[in-house]
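Design review, sub-item: ligand-bound model
Attendees: FS, YL, KQ
YL presented the inputs for the magnesium ion complex:
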Amino acid sequence: MNYKAPRGTHDIFGETALGLNLLEQKAKEIFIRHGFEEVRTPMFEEAALFARSIGQATDIVEKEMYVFEDKKKRKFALRPEGTTSLARAFVEHRMDISSPACKFFYLGEMFRYERPQAGRYRQFRQIGAEIYASSSPAADAEIIILAREVLSSLDIDKINIHINSLGCGKCRPFFREALVEYFSSVEDLCEECLRRLEKNPLRLLDCKIDSCKLTDLPKMLDYLCHDCKDNFYMVQFLLKKASCNFTVNGKLVRGLDYYTRTVFEVRSDAVGSQDAIAAGGRYDNLIKEIGGQNTPAVGFAVGAERVLLAAQSVGFFKNLKSPEKIFVAIADQEFFSEAFAFAVKITRDGINGNKDISVFGPINGKSLTNQLKFANKIHVSKVIVFAKTEFENGKVLIKNMKDKKQTEIELNKL
Ligand code: ATP
Ligand code: MG
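KQ shared the predicted structure:
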């Protein structure tokens, strides 16, 4: 076959599919315990919406978006992240009225045209949560703790949480100015940084090229206004109270322009160079920017693929208990329909109340030996055999595949 999945995308099956389901299930449970409600948004939106929210001069909008025209020449983009779509839905449906707690979560595919490598794909999944209408530092702390809990549910406990404050509309311009002044006198800036200097100076802090990585940079924390300082202090205080470890990293910036005040990134040594497994922060101006009421907000997203890589490296999947596999076999072809109906029944009701089972068989037209060979191949633990003599006495044989012991049991006792 000459067809392959598009570059940067992958088919999810086997252990990865199991892992993804489990991660999504655990995350949902945690979100619901914290009072969050699910929102599913479309996978594409008007391209202008993302440009407006994420920022025209960001890598995501400039280079990474999948933009296309529909038949009526309208410009759409596959969503590169979830926060923007959720914010649009929040404003469009006045969700502050229908869900006054204003806590929402989402999970789903995101699309970015990036150079694919381990942990970096063109289609990937994010699981995220957002709290609207609260400017309290407790919301920031809760979001960071949520990210930690989601990771911890897959045994990913060795993480570093980096936090920073990017200030607000009052104090950030002074920092911006200091950055521009500082970098204007630096020689050897890469081409990209020269552009950043003009368009988006904060991104200068995020350059991966050595000559642009400088040590004695101005720090946002030195420029925070009184309110932002208080706020950042309180976030840290609450995190400490809740025994959530973190590192203050004055160089941390995010690749999206909408962030204000708290930003954070969760890193794990377990996933190689793409070590950011979750990220987020506060974005107090976004809702207003896209046409809503003045609504402060804070949120985060984990990258599901990177989380699964981390979970794999800490051996999480080895300890998973899978359902008991049971095979229903027939020694005599004439019992096929009886065995079939029995398999349907136990699949629905379980065996002796145990519903944590996977049921296979019966197979029509194959000898018992062949059926047992198949049962072995798929590693079943028990085979229930419908055979003439036993069945006429209302019984079936149960073969334990581990110790090969065979017992008889009355059908109506199963
Ligand atoms: P990075 O610095 O690694 O490019 P980012 O700052 O672009 O990450 P965000 O937009 O904040 O990432 O997205 C949140 C999380 O989504 C990241 O921490 C990461 O785990 C995941 N993520 C982002 N881009 C990709 C991608 N292309 N493939 C897989 N996961 C991704
Ligand atoms: Mg990126």
